[in-house]
Prior knowledge:
The complex is a heterodimer of chains A (about 425) and B (about 220). Chain A is an alpha/beta fold. Chain A has helices at about 20, 25-35, 55-65, 80-95, 105-120, 160-170, 210-220, 240-255, 275-285, 300-310, 325-330, 345, 360-370, 375-390, 395-414, and strands at about 5, 40-45, 70-75, 125-130, 145-150, 175-180, 190-195, 230-235, 260-265, 290-295, 310-315, 335-340, 355. In chain A, helix 9 links the parallel strand 9 and strand 10. The N and C termini of chain B lie close together (about 10 Å). Classes of the chains: A alpha/beta (about 425), B alpha+beta (about 220).
Amino acid sequence: MTTTTTTTTSRPIPLDDYAPIIGQPEVDELRALAGSLRGHSIQMVNSTAVGGGVAEILTRLIPILKELDLSVRWDVITGGNDFYGITKAFHNALHGGPYLLPPESFETFLAYNRQNLSRLSMDSEFTVIHDPQPVALIQGRSNHSGHWVWRCHIDLSHPNPAVWGLLEPWVKQYDAAIFSSPEFIQRLPLPQYLFFPCIDPLSEKNLEIPPETVRGILDLYGIDPKRPILTQISRFDRLKDPVGVIQAYRIVKRYFDCQLVLAGGSADDDPEGEAVLSEVKEAAGDDPDVHILNLPPWSPTEINALQQASTIIIQKSLREGFGLTVAEALWKKKPVVASAVGGIPLQIIHKHTGLLAHSVAGAAYQIRFLLSNPALAAKLAQQGHEHVREHFLITTNAKRYLTLFQYLLATSEK
Amino acid sequence: MQGIESPFQFLTASYLIRVQNLRATTLAEFAAGLETCSDACIFFHTFQSLSRHHFLTEGFSNDFAQWALAACNRPELAEQLASFDIREYTSLAKLRADMRRVVNDYCELHPQFAAQQTFEAFGFCEAIEVAIPLGFDARTLREFNEGLQKLSRASLHYHFIASRLRLHLQTNDFSNWFENTLGLPNLAHRADHIDIYTSTLEGVRLILTQLIEKELCT
């Protein structure tokens, strides 16, 4: 059974609420950019209404576009367990993993796309298809009508060639593709644009919370607010190198009486999560200053409080898609030490908005350097905050879409 | 002050980042990329970079210099690339030629570094500009000042920095209008000498406002 859902978004935040954050002229500019797009239809399609980064972004983006008086629809495709099993396999393979499904799986994938197509009205002037799951909906495009854009949110830097080979013929039919990092672009005969993932400064995870709430959460986990707190927020995944973070902390600990917080969860679809958590606990040993917090999947207030309470935020990933936890930390004006992988160098401009490291020893050195130089750490954090305001907020994301639609409209009229 | 015939039209520009299939993992590849990339690439990594990083007022000049420092660990090359002042350029071809000369000279002098793998690749990107009117204009200096306060940072950059490439003059839209429409050459001169490398775009707005208010008082 497949159903198609047209989503409704809850608790829309008025656009003017962003004015104190980004400035009234920036809000007015969004209205000016939207002006000539009024009367043109826009459609976004993805594979889930709740959960996951794409749904989180669309939940915020769609109300903003609607408030700009634009005609926007958000449709969600659905499918059976077999469909999601296949798309999960695609997802892992596009991140570079092996692909072991039989050839007929791709036929099943296409059949579900066709089934969704029979229920969806795909007649908008601007259609943005998010990620691989609905990529084959483009077969429903009639006579090259409208503008079709494929927005790929995943790390395509090392895709499994077998799976990319299956998807590429569909992607090539689009007018444009959008990726999150220059590292992820492919050799395609269509324009490829860069849109950064974004955070919402008015979301529960990023709003400033009262000090007493922060204190309560630190007390709950036995964290001492009077001593430096080093924190890495990420799920327990070897690619996030939590054991490497503990090794870096041990080097720092020789010189500074600090604490380490490793907070995250293990995704339900990650069979290695439990094993990694055990490795992390073993590496931490009986050090009372290492706090390993296995949080439930949706813990925005806890994450927010831990970030706000931290002295330094670490993101020592070995590979990374974009690493939005870095943007979250910078938005909270926290100095960040992070690995130069994936989308992190886009967020951390070395020595301007944070410090980059390439090894355990390097990370430890940069952390010690910041702990010894609090004024410099504060300056990097402030500049990092401005960097996020400029590039990684939901309002900037809305501006990029408006600009893209304006550009597509202008070039098609020529 | 009397109204005039040619009002100042406030516009804003928004940019798409188009990624090119052109990457450099060594300085030699970077030098080759500088030669073949489009003018829109040169604009993105120099003029537009200043707008994207307007909040950095120390030690940041353009994407090329930052990459030479952070990804190549070549501070002497980074210093040379950072020293280019885009206010002196009214053509991207000239800026490209000067930057190419610096990189090529460095690679010739230090062939061992030219072939060295960098920490991170340099991905060449283009800026695609979409300029739109903001729906208000100014006929007097007082109206101009009111309009200035309503401009986004992108609009400030469009009129004050990127304008050189449109005008092909070593000036900006504001100064051009002050001098040629309002007949205020001194204000035009002072506005054009605001240092965009040591001021943020908000700083530029503040200094310009002060200059205008002083002019209005005279």
